[in-house]
# Entry
Amino acid sequence: MEITWEDGARTTYTGEQLRWACPCAECRGEAGMPGRLSRVKTLGDEELRVKDVQLVGQYALQIAFESGHATGLYTFPYLRRGLMQ
Amino acid sequence: MSAPSSQQVLQALATIKDPDLGRDVVSLGMIKELEVSAQGKVSFTFELTTPACPVRDRFKSQAEDAVRELTGVTAVDVRMTANVRPAFLRPKPSEILPGVKQTIAIASGKGGVGKSTVAVNLAAALRQSGASVGLLDADILGPSVPVMTGSRQTPQQANGRLLPIDAHGMKLMSFGHLYPEGQPTIYRGPMVGKAIEALMTQVDWGRLDYLVIDLPPGTGDASLTLAQAVPLTGVAIVCTPQDVATDIAVRALQMFRKLNVTPLGLIENMSWYVCPSCGHRHEIFSHGGAESAAKRYGVPFLGAIPLEESIREDADTGVPVVISRPESAGAKAFVAIASQVAARTSIQSFRQLPVINVH
# Structure
């Protein structure tokens, strides 16, 4: 996925990078419980392929993967700053 | 020989199983528009989840065979279609409020600051300036718009959607219109979000210059849902002058900042009171807190509205004060704030939204 920002800067991510950086509660964990991504070592092929992207309000992108996983809301700051917290 | 019943046809089709999903095609909702004529002609649509379904032809022959087995069937007509399941369970942003040019949310950090009165009067003032205006009462749990606008009516429906109520030249919709008077809406958090979505997608708002959205007080589900569903043009935050009130208002400001919603500014309500007998100006809740908070946080100060009995009186009788008493200080304050809001939103409309290309 290639993003061109308002100021002209560009960031590019592979589906794999995006999937491993999914910020949703299932992947990342919540309320002290570890997320799925901290437990599994590998992910299947369809999990790593981006299927579709949708704008959420005007602050995030919702990314759906071929596996059907689509609950991650990737905020603009998150996407701009290299998927760092 | 009599034709079979729809039930019998569905039972026959329920013998067909989807190999991937492991359930029969009837329980998966893939059989649609089933018709059985008196002469025994059976026709239906078989809806696949993808046009590229590998067992498409097999499904078709299985369906035809299963139905032909029934007694009384003279002909079978199966239409194969595909309805690709959306990747997302939310409606596309472009499909929500397509005819509305600008959406203005009215928020407050806490209740009791007069937010709904401000929303109703701002909407009416924008209408008076010649714009086409809608008012969406997103306060699901405590709707006050119907009373303040004298519009206690049941909405009509057309083409499966609700038509907004026409009042004072504006289009309105509120949960107060949908439930009989006095009946509370007791909703858990996730249902509030769904209710807000319904007010946006299942009401035919048509073409509007402005949709003013009266949010519930605080920073909860309703605001979050709204900010996720539509790219809001901006949010105006109402507060009373006391420091406490404005600190709370600022929290609302920070929330909308995180959601990347443009802050149109702060509005100070109940800013002063002019005693009708002695004519003195009293600042009951102090004064100027919102203006200094606005300066501190770098957002515009949109204006101050006085405490006037007529504002509340006319709201209780269902007429916004900008319409009933335009020469009053309150009405003039609302009109001035409305033109400030309009000026700021027109700057916003030049802001570009992200373009998404999926290859």
Notes: Chain B has a mean pLDDT of 88. Chain B has two domains: 6-82, 93-348. Residues 103 and 111 of chain B are 22 Å apart (CA to CA).
